[in-house]
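Input (structure):
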């Protein structure tokens, strides 16, 4: 396999020293005060300018609009001139896009909202719909990613090297298919079109106040981002011209994050345990100590049973109270690092007036690393007579108070992710005649991702009595005579795991040929058409753990070497004021038997150690070697998906007068054929016949390749209309049929045979009774009809009032269904049933309203507001605690479970999304304050997208201010997450604590120089 070999940062066992930064306490006041000062100073400048003009100066001053005002004007212009419903941002100069990242830039567009990770914007949802319903195009081409889905992590691309971002909310036939919610486009500069020489550099310093309290071995308190770009044009005597644009960026920053967590719902470690005081066989009132999901006498790992009882038609535990409890809860302290190198290149060559040739390339290499220090408390265990009797829950079964005895762990992880992106392409435009233009484009995009992780653990040797109570955001623990800061308390069951996982390669090769023929008629202005072919491949390498490989070393429960390892690798707790912004005081309180507080062990820290030192020592003590295992291509866990797409389209553009109004737009159709082939591996086998003619299946040692697939053809018509009702009022409408394909990671092919061992099979049809497996390469796309109408008023270049109404009807949902698949065994074809996830014909509706408002007053103050409201009846059932059904071969539907959680909505769906920007720009001063709000939404896990996880509503503030010292030099300060808005998540049901992430603000100061 081709593996990523760039370095993964190791930690050195060093002495830790840190102090509390006063800036961390005053950041809110400081930033706001500095902005206020800038505004006040700018106001004086405005007054002085007005005075000088009033003293009789008669020369007319030509004002060049720039900065935030120019950005808002460009947004208005992009929206007004388009024939589709589109919103976007553009920059006249490279490096002038007003945002710290592409994600932050897109968030400022009406109807767009981001999913936050590490304090910054990553995946983008459009109009309340999740990223899997959107498509992203880079310079008109599809972009790859390392997540196994079709969303794009926009933090991979530097905003400084992108010239334009836009979101197309309706589509025309010429656009690459794939976006039900919309299409996000990113564009880099064409140097000849830019038309001037430019050498530009920017150095940006990053300071995160929360980082000042962390002794971070991966990154210093200050980070930086350096960007350089060069644009030039060369004209030759024979009329030819060549343009060159290069850009490069180096980023080295930290991403501070403190967390409180519960067990994830993506596996089998978060349970709904019975909370019935009359049931002493299981649940929180079981008669003997043990895990609440296990029965005293009977089954294990079950909890609340949602399976249908055939005698009642209800769930087996219908009506029984329950409470949510995970295998563990934890606090996590992080040391973080984020390094990225990015390179952009563009060549534009015009050998004559009839040819325009563009070559562009983008490269991004990113390494994220975290050294994690966890305090885990295991809390499934029931203490009879204590746990159930003192349990307090809310109305959805989330625990607010727990009491009992269980083990504590000082755990740690050292994690790194390497993600490399490369994309390049060539575009050749030929003006064959005055009427005919032909365009050819070929491109390649590739993303490689790999994750390495060390996971460590040291436990208490005995069960510790403790209680925890839920605060406003996170739990708080009270222990009795137990010092969590004493490393000698965690000498039991030392273990280390070294994982190499999520090794993925995603490639897209594509080519298209288009024509544009001008008609010059009174109604139809031109006809466009073209063909496109593409091939997407996705490979995820398997190993001993399915999606990766693991090496594990564990020591005996009472190994005498344990205390030596812990003491040799011990470090001071790396952070002061840990989780202080989301806690209600000390997160851990140590009391004696009388309830008096013991100072040692009370606070917000615990015993920690260097993760690499710990892992190396445990491996050596077990006679092993400290090295990450390899992943394999020929492995049962491997996914190898190839998706080939061919499409053709034809579209007519019109521009005519009707009823004394100008109408313009287009209509057309796109026809798309997609074929999916998926490869997998399984153990080889032989079908053996004994002397009586009875067949049996004998497994071999070797692996054999298996394959499956499917295909579909869809017709995608579209129609767009713009009515110039008056000089400043536009009426707009659009209709199109959209499609969103299944994620590549969901189209793997894993299959194993089920045999009938109770009979004496004499034929293959008798021997095989079914198939177990996962992944469905024959998954059909989710289709939708989309309708938009809008009214837009443009009073002047700085003002906009726009209201849009839209409706989407989805055809498709995801449900378990039994289907037949053909398998070749011993040269014979056997048709067997398998139950798998399929796209159904279920129809759902989504309605929405979108509004934009922009205005600028004469005193230099301007504002831009964007709001989106949406509602839908789309339902997504949780696969473990929701209502689940199966459709048999005859099309009959049978309910398998009666759930205890309400279904989620569309993945990524938020009812309300709001953004507001207030700016003040006079002379060379430019300041802006931005607010972004997104209501709660369901966000699937990438490891298990069938479980419900809700991200709570959040409002985030940003600010920026700049001063243009002269025509060459500009100073700028920027801040995101200004008031330290945490990210809060609920598992399975709203109101059930899942995870809280505290990032703190991130501050940037920069100077840019251009010539």
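Output (sequence):
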């Amino acid at each position: 396999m081709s593996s990523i070999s760039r370095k993964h940062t190791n930690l050195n066992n060093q002495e830790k020293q840190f102090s509390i930064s006063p800036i961390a306490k005053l950041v809110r006041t400081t930033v706001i005060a500095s902005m206020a000062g800038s505004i006040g100073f700018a106001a004086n400048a405005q007054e002085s300018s007005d005075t000088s003009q009033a003293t009789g100066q008669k020369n007319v001053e030509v004002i060049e609009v720039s900065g935030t005002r120019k950005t808002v004007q460009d947004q208005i212009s992009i929206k007004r001139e388009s024939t589709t419903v589109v919103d976007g941002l553009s920059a006249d100069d490279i490096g002038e896009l007003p945002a710290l990242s592409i994600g932050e830039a897109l968030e400022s567009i009406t109807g767009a909202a981001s999913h936050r990770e590490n304090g910054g914007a990553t995946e983008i949802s459009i109009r309340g719909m999740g990223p899997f319903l959107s498509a992203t195009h880079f310079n008109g081409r599809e972009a790859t990613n390392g997540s196994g889905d079709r969303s794009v992590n926009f933090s991979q691309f530097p905003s400084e090297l992108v010239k334009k971002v836009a979101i197309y909310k309706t589509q025309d036939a010429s656009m690459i298919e794939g976006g039900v919610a919309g299409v996000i486009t990113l564009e880099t500069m064409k140097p000849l079109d830019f038309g001037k020489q430019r050498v530009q550099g920017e150095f940006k310093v990053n300071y995160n106040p929360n980082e000042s309290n962390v002794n971070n071995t991966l990154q210093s308190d200050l980070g930086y981002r350096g960007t350089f770009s060069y644009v030039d044009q060369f004209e030759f005597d024979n009329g030819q011209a060549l343009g060159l644009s290069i850009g490069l960026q180096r980023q080295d920053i930290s991403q501070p994050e403190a967390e409180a967590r519960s067990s994830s719902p993506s596996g089998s470690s978060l349970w709904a345990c019975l909370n019935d005081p009359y049931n002493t066989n299981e649940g929180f009132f079981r008669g003997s100590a043990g895990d609440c999901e296990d029965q005293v006498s009977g089954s294990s790992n079950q909890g609340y049973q949602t399976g249908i009882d055939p005698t009642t038609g209800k769930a087996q535990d219908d009506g029984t109270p329950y409470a949510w409890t995970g295998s563990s809860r934890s606090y996590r302290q992080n040391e973080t690092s984020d390094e990225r190198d990015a390179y952009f290149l563009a060549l534009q060559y015009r050998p004559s007036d009839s040819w325009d040739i563009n070559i562009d390339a983008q490269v991004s290499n990113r390494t994220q690393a975290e050294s994690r220090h966890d305090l885990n408390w295991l809390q499934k265990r029931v203490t009879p007579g204590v746990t159930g009797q003192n349990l307090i829950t809310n109305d959805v079964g989330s625990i607010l108070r727990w009491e009992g005895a269980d083990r504590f762990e000082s755990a740690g992880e050292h994690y790194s992710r390497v993600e490399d992106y490369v994309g390049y392409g060539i575009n050749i435009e030929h003006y064959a005649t005055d009427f005919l233009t032909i365009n050819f484009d070929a491109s390649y995009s590739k993303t490689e991702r790999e994750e390495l992780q060390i996971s460590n653990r040291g436990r208490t040797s005995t069960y510790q009595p403790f209680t925890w109570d839920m605060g406003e955001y996170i739990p708080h623990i009270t222990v009795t005579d137990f010092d969590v800061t004493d490393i000698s308390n965690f000498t039991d069951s030392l273990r280390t795991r070294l994982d190499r996982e999520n090794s993925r390669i995603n490639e897209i090769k594509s080519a298209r040929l288009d024509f544009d023929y001008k008609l010059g008629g009174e109604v139809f202005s031109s006809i466009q058409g073209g063909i496109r072919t593409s091939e997407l491949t996705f490979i995820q390498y398997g190993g001993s753990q399915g999606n990766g490989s693991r090496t594990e070393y564990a020591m005996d429960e009472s190994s005498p070497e344990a205390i030596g390892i812990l003491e040799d690798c011990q470090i001071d707790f790396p952070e002061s004021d840990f989780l202080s912004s989301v806690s209600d005081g000390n997160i851990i309180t140590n009391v004696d038997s009388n309830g008096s507080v013991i100072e040692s062990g009370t606070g917000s820290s615990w015993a920690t150690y260097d993760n690499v030192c710990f892992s190396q020592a445990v491996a050596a003590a077990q006679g092993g070697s400290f090295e990450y295992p390899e992943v394999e291509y020929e492995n049962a866990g491997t996914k190898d998906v190839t998706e080939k797409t061919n499409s053709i389209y034809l579209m007519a553009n019109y521009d005519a007068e009707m009823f004394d109004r100008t109408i313009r737009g287009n209509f057309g159709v796109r026809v798309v054929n997609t074929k999916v082939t998926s490869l997998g591996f399984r153990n080889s086998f032989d079908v053996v016949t004994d002397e009586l003619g009875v067949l049996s299946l004998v497994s071999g040692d070797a692996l054999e390749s298996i394959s499956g697939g499917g295909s579909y053809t869809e017709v995608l018509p579209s129609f767009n209309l713009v009515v110039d009702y008056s000089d400043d009022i536009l009426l707009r409408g659009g209709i199109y049929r959209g499609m969103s394909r299944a994620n590549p990671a969901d189209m793997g092919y894993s299959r194993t045979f089920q045999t009938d061992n109770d009979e004496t099979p004499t034929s293959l049809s008798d021997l095989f009774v079914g198939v177990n497996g996962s992944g469905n390469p024959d998954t059909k796309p989710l289709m939708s009809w989309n309708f938009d109408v809008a009214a837009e008023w443009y009073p002047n270049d700085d003002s906009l009032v726009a209201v849009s109404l839209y409706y989407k009807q989805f055809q498709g949902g995801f449900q378990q269904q039994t289907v037949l698949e053909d398998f070749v065994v011993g040269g014979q074809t056997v048709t067997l049933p398998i139950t798998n996830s399929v796209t159904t014909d279920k129809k759902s509706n989504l309605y929405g309203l979108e509004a934009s408002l922009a205005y600028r007053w004469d005193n230099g103050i301007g504002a831009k507001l964007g709001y989106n409201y949406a509602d839908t009846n789309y339902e997504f059932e949780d696969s473990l605690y929701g209502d689940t059904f199966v459709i048999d071969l005859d099309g009959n539907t049978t309910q398998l479970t009666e759930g205890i959680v309400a279904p989620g909505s569309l993945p990524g769906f938020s009812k309300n999304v709001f953004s507001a920007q207030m700016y003040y720009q006079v002379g060379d001063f430019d300041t802006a304050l931005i607010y972004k709000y997104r209501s709660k939404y369901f966000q699937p896990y990438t490891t298990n997208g069938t479980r419900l996880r809700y991200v709570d509503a959040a409002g985030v503030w940003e600010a920026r201010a700049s001063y243009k010292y002269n025509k060459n030099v500009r100073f700028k300060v920027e801040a995101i997450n200004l008031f330290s808005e945490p990210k809060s998540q609920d598992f399975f049901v709203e109101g059930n604590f899942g995870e809280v992430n505290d990032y703190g603000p991130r501050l940037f100061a920069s100077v840019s120089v251009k010539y």
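Notes: Residues 1-58 have pLDDT under 50 and may be disordered. The chain has eight helices and 53 strands.
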